Structures are given as structure tokens and as C-alpha cells.
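pls ignore typos typing on phone
magnesium ion + seq
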Amino acid sequence: MPSSRLAASLLAAGVALLPLAGETRSALAAGFDHGTLTPRQDAILSGVLSETRQLVRESATPVSVFDLDATLFDAGGRHKQIMAEYARSHKDRFPGMLAKVLAWETDRLPYEVSETFDELGIQDPADRKDAKDFWYKRFFSNDYLHYDTPIAGAAAFVKALDRAGSVIVYLTGRNDAQLRSGTLRVLEANGFPVDPAKHALVMNPSKAMRDSAFKGSAAVRTQIEALGKVVALFDNEPGNVNELQRSFPDALTVFLDTNHSPKAPQVDAGIPWIKNFRWSWLTGPLAARPR
Ligand SMILES: [Mg+2]
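k done
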């Protein structure tokens, strides 16, 4: 259980930090913007913003940390674009494929693109390998990142933290040498604050290091703690939130229930779940609340 002032205040307000029945279902059935805003999600996001403002009043430097893929961005658009290109370039072999791909809802796709191959009629092992190679070359390319779309409310929430005086850390398993330029370009194009004098993009320096090992490393902890007081960390991978919770026990680690790898562990108890970044200060009856 996180020991932060924020977690304590959420619990005192009656915000259960455990998933509720029905909220543990796969994101494939949930979508990233289809769930209505729950009071609990609202309390968690509003609480992060309130704690950020309180730290600024105390002359501390608040920090919030965000993963990118399936946390701030839905990478389904990238899958869809790449498989549409595959379908167009293989239309003689797979004549019905393009229509199926164009009908995809990007936030309902499985985590692994190969899980779509049966639906698309890609059955032969040689075809499956060819399609996976085609996909791989493009998915991890700066030229395709702009097909991602922000998760609902994400840009507004991160901008609100920026305006409140928070340092924003984008902590991603994307490879540094390969994807830094495109990542910065797409963050900026979607309205996320990227001023290098205030914020940081922390990327995996090694293709060999697992995402959770990188994010849970002492080097990452030291780098982030040097920036200020960590308020909250957001990630969609159970293995990552569990590591982050252990690395930053005084902060609030939040699990994004969007999409994650198929063999992931359970999310540790005490880590709250949210569906996206919609919160009522932006969109609801509390929008006019004084700041
Ligand atoms: Mg992710």
C-alpha cells in the first residue's frame, strides 16, 4: 500500500484503491473512452492534481511520471495503418483483408498483432512470418508513431499538471536511439508539454533490457528522484506498475486498464486502476471549481 499523503487522503475520502468487481475485465471489451467517468477515477486524478498544487505551495517540485504506449497513447492506430498497408500490398493473396482492417476499432485490438492474423485469414506459417516481419519493421519506426492517438483526457490532464507546476516525466520502454525523435514530435503534436528545460523523456537505452527491469532499475529511480518529489506514476503494464510501486513507495502508482501483454502478472494489491484520464475538473459539473 502506498504511504503517500495522496494515498492516505484518497483512502480517508472513501476511495477504494482496489479494483471493483467488473473492472478487472480485459480492456479489449472495455475500450479506452467507452467507460463513463467513475467517482473513483475522478478522485484519483483530481487528487494527483491537488497534491501537485499543494507541493508547489510548500515550495517543493512535484513530479508525475507517465508511460506512453497504452498509457498516454493508443497504439492501435499504428497497428491499423501498418496492417492496412500490408493488406493493400497483398490484395491478390488476401482480397478481403483490407475491408476487415479498415473496420477495426483501434482501442479494441489485441495486444499482439499476430492475434489478429486468424481473423484476417493469414494462416500459412510463411504468410504469418511475412506479415509479422512487415509489421515489425514499421511498428518500431519514427515514421509510424503519428498514427497513435492520445488516450481520452490524457493531453488535458498532463497539461493541467504542467500548468500547476509539475515536472512531467515520460518514462517509456521505447528504445532511445531508435524512437526519440519521433516520440518527441508526436508528443508535441498532440499537445503534451515537452519543454526540455522543465520535463524529461526517459527511454530504454537497451533493446535487450525488459521494460519492467528498465523501469524498476535504480538508475531510473535515481534519475527521476533528482527531479523533485514524485507524486504519481502511471503505466498500463502490470509488471511495470508493480516495479514502480516498489521503486517509489511514497508515491501513488496507478494502473491504466487499457491493454497489456498477455502473460502479465497480477497487478499488486493497493494499486488503483483507471480507464483513461477523464476527470471532472475538465469535463463535468466541477469544471468551474476554483483552482
Ligand atoms: Mg505501455
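Residues 101 and 130 are 17 Å apart (CA to CA). The first strand starts at residue 62 and ends at 66. more later
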